[in-house]
Specification:
The structure is a single chain. The chain is built from 5 helices and 13 strands. By secondary structure, the protein is α+β, with helices and mostly antiparallel strands. A 5-stranded antiparallel beta sheet has the order 1-10-13-12-11. The longest helix has about 35 residues.
């Protein structure tokens, strides 16, 4: 029995080793494929859960532009008329006021009477100047005749001519002063000041009436050179009153010019706006 068994065992054929190895690799590949499918399913489910849990965010789109931004400066300034658009009238000589034709706020035209002065002194001075001119003219005629006849030297005629020229100048000045007995507005505008009373005495240097053209008013600001360098003509200006705490709005304007010079007394630069 033992010998037969051995014979039967030896009679069974053996499979090659390559077939066993093939089955081993097939089994390993099958296991790897199953694990890959499981991983893909788990990832897909995890992604779906994350997508379901993600919050919804609303967003708006905008267009980006490059633009300048305003620089605001708060400075003090004064309102003034442009040169040639403001007139300040005074008496040509010491006298008194005889009439006042206007009041503050009145609109006037060029040539309109504003204040009448006492012309008594002016007329007397004009008469004296006229008499002196007549005497100088006669003296010159006499000197010229004597020189022509050879009686007087030529220097007498030259001196008489100089005296005549001086007398003519004095007469013209006296006549001009007499004509200024009525102060008239040289421009069209608004009376902004009347600094005189009826029958009051006035001096030559005393301003009596002021007239301003309101269409030529400007706001004048004084800035440091660095600040003035950042302002260009055309910049917007907003005017408010500095006389009250509420800062009453007065109007808007534009910068018309920046001075190219620095004030040596204040170290500032004037900026004008309309």
């Amino acid at each position: 029995m033992i010998g037969n068994v051995d014979m039967e065992q030896h009679s069974v054929p053996r499979r090659p080793r390559a077939a066993g190895r093939r089955r081993h690799w097939l089994a390993a590949a099958l296991v790897a494929l199953i694990l890959l499918v499981i991983v893909l399913v788990v990832r897909r489910r995890g992604g779906e859960e994350a997508a379901a849990a993600a919050p919804v965010v609303a967003a708006d789109t905008g267009v980006v532009r490059v633009e300048p931004f305003p620089v605001v400066m708060s400075v003090l300034g004064t309102i003034d008329a442009r040169p040639g658009h403001m007139a300040e009238l005074a008496a040509p000589a010491a006298t008194r006021v005889s009439k006042i034709y206007v009041a503050v706020g009145d609109r006037v035209v060029a040539g309109q009477p504003l204040v009448a002065l006492d012309r008594t002194v002016f007329n007397a001075q004009a008469e004296q100047a006229r008499a002196a001119y007549v005497a100088a003219r006669e003296a010159h005629e006499r000197a010229r005749r004597l020189v022509a006849e050879g009686i007087a030297p030529r220097k007498d005629e030259e001196q008489a001519a100089a005296d005549l020229a001086q007398a003519r100048g004095n007469l013209e000045a006296a006549q001009h002063t007499a004509a200024l007995g009525v102060l008239r507005s040289p421009i069209a505008g608004v009376v902004t000041q009347v600094g005189v009373a009826l029958a009051s005495p006035v001096d030559v240097s005393q301003p009596l009436v002021e007239v301003v053209d309101p269409t030529a008013l400007e706001a004048v600001f004084h800035l440091s050179p660095r600040e003035a360098g950042t302002i260009a003509p055309g910049a917007a200006v907003e005017l408010t009153s500095a006389q009250d705490s509420a800062r009453t709005f007065l109007g808007r304007g534009r910068v018309t010019g920046v001075s190219a010079a620095v004030d040596t007394a204040t170290g500032s630069v004037a900026v004008r706006a309309t």
